[in-house]
Amino acid sequence: MRVMIAPDSFKGSLSALEAALAMQRGLRRVFPGAQSRLVPIADGGEGTVEALLAAGGGRLMAASVRGPLGKKVKANWGLLGDGKSAVVETAAASGLTLLRREERNPLLADSYGTGELIRLALRALHAGKEHAEPPRLILGLGGSASNDGGAGCLRALGARFLDGNGRELPPGGATLAGLRAADLSGLEPLLLKTDILLACDVDNPLLGPAGASAVFGPQKGASPAMVAELDAALARYADVVEKETGRRVRDVPGAGAAGGLGVAFLLFAGARIRPGADIVFEVSGLEADLGGVDLVLTGEGQTDFQTARGKAPVRLARLAKKYGKPVVCISGALGQNAEAVLEQGVDALGSAVCSVVTLEAAMRQAGRGLEEATARCLRLIRLGMSLGASSGVSVEAQPGLEIKL
Predict the structure, then answer these.
(1) What kind of fold does domain 2-40+294-390 have according to CATH?
(2) What is the CATH number of domain 48-277?
(3) What residue ranges do the domains of the chain occupy?
(4) CB neighbours of 251 closer than 8 A, spacing ≥ 6?
(5) Segment 272-312, tens digit of pLDDT
(6) pLDDT per residue as tens digits for the range 95-147
(7) How much of the chain is helix, strand and coil, in % rounded to 5?
(8) Which residues pair with 329 in a beta bridge?
(9) What residues have CB less than 8 Å from 95, skipping those under 6 apart?
(10) Which helix (H) or strand (E) holds 318?
């Protein structure tokens, strides 16, 4: 049996590589002779730097930058092995996991630290180098604690956002309601000399019921009243910055990712936006190996209705179906309408949590739980194979599935 093990990270508990290793241990408990290829994946959120470095080689870089509420945090970014690409993830400097639950407040949080990482990456890409083509910066949009439309990020890169009296606005998503002008005269010039690729895991617009504030605000600590306040503030921000550039981007799919951070780069840096999982797949060469495997195992921290909108496990499942490969998604938990992924190429679902347990306990035991869940799922597969081989029972398989005991 040849198995591709390609999970996303289990946010707050397992990196994508750690998850893949746990699943591999579960595989070996049931099929000791199976061949496996580990491909950590990501879709722009937490783990994007690790996944791209694992796929393309390079160096992990570290810096001390400003966190979502102003405290210094240590954040990683990556220089890829091709020597002309860098990757920054919003979650590293401005991520939700950097805050305790009681600290979450998108009215105050901002994305300044992400801008600090971008400045470091730009300078490293351009330092004393001549490029035939512009170097590439991949910016992962996902997992943010902020809802500031990228204003904080642009501040770190030299922009100023002013109120009606010409004073600079304080940090946070709520203060954008008082925005009257944007001064971009000091904006980092290397932005326009770099090919900026926004790796996005959702297709939400900036504003409205499917926008950044309404969909992602509650998980960042926003009450219904705060959601309305934040959406109005982002609308004001969009009015000002779109007028500044003469371009309308508020309705671009993915504009609502990372609290609207991508809007800043779509408007002021000529960035392009792509599904983050597709970028990781390309760098890793994952698709080239799909034709030679019998089974694909994937997973994430929680599979729910948002997964079906194009998160990494579903994008992998759709790709696997091009080659007729079965896909099992084994996640930390199955949330609201998780079954929607079964219409998107996933063939079966599994959960690492199989008893009543606190979230904290589940996260502490995540590796062991994922290993055991993988073994449970594979025992069922082994049983089905045995029935098909020895009992005369017809077991339908996806085209191209050929698994031998």
Answers:
(1) Rossmann fold (3.40.50)
(2) 3.90.1510.10
(3) 2-40+294-390, 48-277
(4) 205, 206
(5) 999 999 999 998 889 999 999 999 999 999 999 888 878 89
(6) 999 999 999 999 999 999 999 999 999 999 999 777 778 999 999 998 899 99
(7) 40, 20, 40
(8) 298, 349
(9) 46, 68, 89, 143, 144, 145
(10) helix 312-321
